[in-house]
Amino acid sequence: MGSYCAARRTNRQASFSGNNEYATRAFATTSCASLSEDQPKDNPVSDMLVDSFGRLHTYLRISLTERCNLRCQYCMPADGVELTPSPQLLTKTEILRCANLFVSSGVNKIRLTGGEPTIRKDIEDICLELSNLKGLKTLSMTTNGIALARKLPKLKECGLNSVNISLDTLVPAKFEFMTRRKGHEKVMDAINASIDLGFNPVNCVVMRGFNDDEICDFVELTREKPIDIRFIEFMPFDGNVWNVKKLVPYSEMLDKVMKRFTSLKRVQDHPTDTAKNFTIDGHEGRVSFITSMTEHFCAGCNRLRLLADGNFKVCLFGPSEISLRDPLRRGAEDDELKEIIGAAVKRKKASHAGMFDIAKTANRPMIHIGG
């Protein structure tokens, strides 16, 4: 895997300190540690989770439901989506069996997604049982925050130890326009509740003409609160009417932030990080950028996805899926399931296609895939 990081490490020998703008810009695109550091020492990764490029897949995202209580424009087509009938979705027992299979093979992080995972009635039971899996170090959840504030204390008791809350605007009226629903105050309450319980990331999908004028307002939140604001480039999925004109590239977002916050400094990222992370002098929180479109991070990808309908997906932008639900329901033993998973992982490509090719490739809406 060293060859994958070579280009990104080219300029890392330089000293990146102080407020030197050139140094910050250079490090903003070159930080990458040795991927060999990702090899778990106490929970070795089985061959099932190693692809043909040597990447170790220790992170599983599990979508618990396709249902959501918002209708965000970048996720949900304007006319809605046809949801998978409930009998075709994975049951709690099936989710736990699959999760145990992955964790026993070397996965040490699970993120619960949706749809909106908090609307699933058995979310607390799922968290409790997942958190008890031997070898699992991190149990995370991505949520829109609408129902989170009242549920989070119990979820933390059940073993949830990381939360990402999606919030794309600080303006209530704009929130209603972007999500096609009310609820801005509830999300802000959820963010404050999560801070009180030691959680901090906030995800913000940036779209030109919608919320790109609020980037620095979001960064300002990190001054007094220990929040990690993660700006995400707008990504194409079926039905979200992606257009490159709506894309605000990482370089442009970075420029905006650097002009206002001159002490912005890049920090060393782990090679499997999806985000480029920064600190600002005097700020309690930090700022991150997820650059899937303009600077992909495929070389360090350690992520796999289990969809709510039981399909297994090795790349967010790849159209290929294979069902784990069907063999599960016909009585497949663990060895057969491992063989199916391992074969899919071995077929994973070195990187996803460019953004214009992705936009033309058939894929499911984000709400089907899982956020």
From TrEMBL:
Name this polypeptide is given: Molybdenum cofactor biosynthesis protein 1
EC annotation from Swiss-Prot or TrEMBL: 4.1.99.22, 4.6.1.17
Classification via SUPFAM superfamilies: Radical SAM enzymes
Reactions catalysed, as given in the entry: (8S)-3',8-cyclo-7,8-dihydroguanosine 5'-triphosphate = cyclic pyranopterin phosphate + diphosphate; GTP + AH2 + S-adenosyl-L-methionine = (8S)-3',8-cyclo-7,8-dihydroguanosine 5'-triphosphate + 5'-deoxyadenosine + L-methionine + A + H(+)
Protein family according to the UniProt entry: In the C-terminal section; belongs to the MoaC family. In the N-terminal section; belongs to the radical SAM superfamily. MoaA family.
Subunit structure as annotated in this protein's UniProt entry: Isoform MOCS1A and isoform MOCS1B probably form a heterooligomer.
Cofactor field: [4Fe-4S] cluster
Keywords: 4Fe-4S, GTP-binding, Iron, Iron-sulfur, Lyase, Metal-binding, Molybdenum cofactor biosynthesis, Nucleotide-binding, S-adenosyl-L-methionine
Pathway this chain belongs to: Cofactor biosynthesis; molybdopterin biosynthesis
A single GO BP: Mo-molybdopterin cofactor biosynthetic process
Domain named Radical SAM core: residues: 52-273
Pfam families according to UniProt: Mob_synth_C, Radical_SAM
HAMAP family assigned to the protein according to its UniProt record, in alphabetical order: MoaA_B
Function comment: Isoform MOCS1A and isoform MOCS1B probably form a complex that catalyzes the conversion of 5'-GTP to cyclic pyranopterin monophosphate (cPMP). MOCS1A catalyzes the cyclization of GTP to (8S)-3',8-cyclo-7,8-dihydroguanosine 5'-triphosphate and MOCS1B catalyzes the subsequent conversion of (8S)-3',8-cyclo-7,8-dihydroguanosine 5'-triphosphate to cPMP.
GO-annotated molecular function: 4 iron, 4 sulfur cluster binding; cyclic pyranopterin monophosphate synthase activity; GTP 3',8'-cyclase activity; GTP binding; metal ion binding
InterPro entries attached to this UniProt entry: Aldolase_TIM, Elp3/MiaA/NifB-like_rSAM, MoaA, MoaA-like, MoaA_NifB_PqqE_Fe-S-bd_CS, MoaA_twitch, MoCo_biosynth_MoaA/MoaC, rSAM
